[in-house]
Automatic annotation (TrEMBL):
This is ATP-binding protein. InterPro entries: AAA+_ATPase (IPR003593), ABC_transporter-like_ATP-bd (IPR003439), ABC_transporter-like_CS (IPR017871), ABC_Transporter_VariousFunc (IPR051782), P-loop_NTPase (IPR027417). It holds the Pfam family ABC_tran. Residues 4-235 form the ABC transporter domain. The lineage of its organism: Bacteria, Pseudomonadati, Bacteroidota, Bacteroidia, Bacteroidales. It comes from Bacteroides sedimenti. One of its GO terms (molecular function) is ATP binding. Keywords: ATP-binding, Nucleotide-binding, Transport.
């Protein structure tokens, strides 16, 4: 189980305050959707939690562990932020086995865990004898999402998971995330510009503006669409 606690987390790039979040807790088992205009700070927020960036101030804790002071959180966390997580000169199989090895999984176990993703991979990801660098953007996105899930993490962080995916793959991954959350009680954080997908799968939605969470929206009854459409001025 995983809880995230944010305390006075701040990060600036020059004059630009990219993230400025006072106190925020994401409880175990929640699916939180992060929305906000371009440059609102979504990716920077994820990068700070994952210790990919050093904060100017404040802390991000996963289960009481300050992520920049200990490695303990890494065993229970799966994340895909962008292509830099992938290893271009490996085939997807080699990459999945490599990730599996890090978490003590045998090849056969990795193969078994890939099976539920068969429809998502649509015959285009494994068995291609092709290096990751030669895959399309959508298939790279699939490889990244699957690799974040393969060790069945208690905390899953995905930056814009629907990007580059065709409509049926978007629909499949929504089901995968919802089912995974329900079956394991994992905590899931996603960011997205797709308001419909976000409201479909996220009972809680954080609206980011200039690095601040300006609204913490309860979407358990799926009522956030209107509020978000008004904020983003969607007709
Ligand atoms: N490495 C960096 N160097 C300088 N500025 C940066 C860097 N990373 C992010 N920023 C700035 O920080 C702010 C927040 O960016 P971030 O990428 O976190 O936003 P975002 O909400 O993920 O945006 P998008 O929806 O466009 O992906 C932006 O003004 C961005 O230009």
């Amino acid at each position: 189980m995983a809880t995230i606690s944010i305390n006075n987390l701040q990060k600036s790039f020059g004059e630009k305050r990219a993230v400025d979040i006072e106190n925020y807790t994401i409880n175990e088992g929640e699916i939180l959707g992060l929305v906000g205009n371009n440059g609102a700070g979504k990716t920077t927020f994820f990068r700070l939690i994952l210790d990919l960036l050093k904060a100017d101030n404040g802390t991000a804790h996963i289960n009481e562990i300050n992520t920049c002071e200990s490695e303990e959180w890494k065993n229970i966390t799966g994340a895909f932020i962008d292509d830099s997580f992938l290893i271009d000169y490996l085939t997807p199989e080699e990459y999945f086995y490599f990730i599996g090895k890090m978490y003590g999984l045998k090849k056969e176990e990795v193969d078994e865990r890939l099976q539920p993703f068969e429809r998502f991979m649509n015959g285009e990801v494994v068995g291609q004898k092709k290096y990751i660098r030669n895959y399309s953007a959508g298939n790279k996105q699939k490889i990244g999402i699957i690799s974040a899930l393969i060790h069945q993490p208690q905390l899953l962080i995905l930056d814009e998971p629907f990007n580059f995916l065709d409509p049926s793959s978007q629909s499949i991954i929504k089901h995968v995330l919802r089912d995974y959350n329900q079956q394991t009680g994992a905590t899931i954080l996603i960011s997205s510009h797709n308001l419909n997908h976000t409201t479909d799968i996220c009972p809680r939605i954080a609206l980011l503006e200039n690095g601040k969470i300006i609204r913490d929206i309860n979407n358990t009854d799926n009522s956030a669409v209107k509020e978000l459409e008004d904020y983003f001025n969607v007709d």
